[in-house]
Amino acid sequence: MPNLDLLLTFLEIYRTGSLSAAAQRLGVTQPAVTGQLARLEQQIGEPLFVRSPKGVAPTQRAAALASRVGLHVDELRGALDSTDAPPALRGTVRVGGAAEVMSLRVLPALSPLTRRGLCVHATLGLADDLLSLLVSGRLDLVVSAVRPTREALLAAPLIDEVFVLVAPPAVAHTVDPERLKADPVEALAHIPMIGYAEELPIVRRYWRTEFGRRPPNPVAMIVSDLRAVLAAVAAGAGISVLPRYIADPALAAGDVVQLHQPEIAPLNTLYLATRRGAPANPALTVLRDHLQRAAGEWNDL
After folding, report:
1. 16 with 277: CB under 8 angstroms?
2. Ranges under pLDDT 70 in the chain
3. How high is the pLDDT of residue 60?
4. pLDDT at 86
5. Residues 287, 291, 292, CA angle at the centre, nearest 5°?
């Protein structure tokens, strides 16, 4: 069982993305940090970070470990700290994400933290725009639908979105089941499509993954909110592809039906992105670890 000192060092490396920055925060030398990390990796039995000249990037095992122990280690550190530092949940964390996942999953999950005194400022938008705000320091954390690749950012997988093709029941009855099995693109080509954006990114990805072709369907409506897309489908305007967590209530109510049953449902991973080397923020740490634990209870989206 790793001792508290090793876990403290691990968390500082994880949060800063740098051995030298972790050493500075801990008030020790970089060789000491390197040695403690080596001891922890030996106990764990596998590397926790991928090293490069520009810092370190956490492995999936590191992200899982940080999610599991982060809040507990912070609470122990606070209990042992004799200073008059303010409680970790005093402060503001600026969080960005897509409107749908923020409204239906992230913000409700954060309500226990706000009751404990944390202030959350939420910004809704597209992943690329939000990641730019994160790099510039105007956000502290982004729930990103695309994997961040900028060197200034650290990212850990949060949860997978599962996509389903949905249609209103009356429209589904117009599709020949045998033709759908034999040639799904042609079987569905006559049905208008409802998209999230003009390029139909979610729909095109589903068609390419499942059918090997781009959708030839006419476009009936473009609306930049997936909940509105679902409402349009339920009203009979056409078909669309949606994350399952958005479609599930309408599927359960019979307002829409799943038109296609793939052997393996198409997925998209959501990431928690933070800024590499950002100043220590206990409130951000608590929020991030809380979200990772909450996502474990969601199973998938």
Report:
1. yes
2. 1, 77-88, 299-300
3. 83
4. 40
5. 120
Q: Is 239 exposed, middle or buried (0-12, 13-18, 19+ CB in 10 A)?
A: buried
Of 115, 110, 113, 146, residue with least CA distance to 131 = 146
Q: With a threshold of 0.90, does the pTM exceed it?
A: no
57's tokens: 């990037």
Task: Write phi, then psi, for 142 (nearest 5 degrees).
Answer: -130, 130
Q: What is the pLDDT of residue 85?
A: 43
Q: Which two tokens stand for residue 126?
A: 């597209």
Buried b / exposed e along 7-25 (16+ C-beta atoms within 10 A): bbbbbbbbbbbbbebbbeb
Q: Could you give the CA distance from residue 221 to residue 141 in angstroms, rounded to a whole number?
A: 32
The token duo for 180 is 């759908």
Q: Are 216 and 185 in contact (CB under 8 A)?
A: yes
What end-to-end distance do the CA atoms of the chain give, in Å?
33
Cα distances from 104 to residues 127, 183, 189, in angstroms, run 17, 35, 32
